[in-house]
Amino acid sequence: MINKRLMVVGASILQVPAIKKAKEMGLTVGVVDYNPNAVGIQYADKYFNCSTLDKDGVNKAVKEFAADGIMTMATDMPMRTIAYVCKENKLAGISEECALNCTDKIEMIRRFERNSVPSPKYREVSCFEELAQAVKEVGFPCILKPADNSGSRGVLLCKSAEDCAASNYEYVAGSSRSGKILVEEYMRGPEVSVEVFVENKVAHVLQITDKITTGAPHFVELGHSQPTLLGQDVCTKIKTVAQAACEAVGLSDGPAHLEMIITRDGPKMVEMGARMGGDCITSHLVPLSTGINMTEQTIRYALNLPLDLNAKLQKASAVVFLTADSGKIAKISGTEKAYKVAGVTEIGFFKKEGDACGEILSSSDRMGFVVAQSNSPENAVAACKKAAKKIKIEVV
Known about the structure:
The chain is of the alpha+beta class and 396 residues long. It has 12 helices and 19 strands. It has an 8-stranded antiparallel sheet with strand order 13-12-9-10-11-14-18-16, sandwiched between helices. Strands 3-2-1-4 form a 4-stranded parallel sheet, sandwiched between helices. Strands 5-8-6-7 form a 4-stranded antiparallel sheet, sandwiched between helices. α5 packs across α8. The longest helix has 18 residues.
């Protein structure tokens, strides 16, 4: 048992694995969240009502709580808050510069370009009047995406000039806090995420994850599986790009989640976060496939404790996300039957009865998830899909 105090930034369902793991480790846990009904609060020792983006508010809470460390899981913008608080309190964490580089996609891709990290051709756009020229320079097809959001929010594929209409521009810019958007070359090839822990500037690749997405035009992730089915030569190239990307943004220690497209010219960066990946990837899939509890290692990093990044398993794991028809959720059933499918380890829901559901435009539109472990990625995905079919989401 560890006699230390940890502050977790956020108390949504994304943060619950960190809160529970910290309590399991014997820590005293505080949480900050603007929502007094956030699901994670019930598992913590102390709750502070504060936005995760309020730097001064979170800093005040950390001082009051006398935290020995601070962390979050799978959320980008709070990393700016954490970097500021770490600097103010001399806690383990990334620099403010690194936090900016990993949360502003324009700064990020500039860093990649400046440091010769393989990445797509791009242009920055600040207003609709600049869009046509930017698209002309990048070429069709191209991707439009907000400069500072996540979860596929506001991402759009443009195949022709008609797709670059003002309404589509407003859709993308409306998801950008700064109002700026990126026009990027559309890269073709399999997409992977790379789960990394950087220690003393060395990027340890813990696992490479294959993705299932909705495809064009929004590219929302509908599933993940580990380990990747790509060959060893490709994996070696992925690891080289991962090291270069972490160096480019100034990440010298801590977890990272990188996304790449495996093009005919090799792996190219899409973007990265200086934090654990979401979508159950690092909280569930990495431990099930490698035996490395990435959540625990992130907590240990935040508390300046020794890390253990050695794999203990050689298994496979997968997550498949649940969807439903448009309407209002009237009833969810079949969970008990789904749990009986061999290999299924966890089922969770993002929405409840009475909530609205509809077209999958971003990750927040998904209904829930099924996680499974097996001896191969194909079998893990099959177990998830078999279980998902047993879950009935009735809408009216």
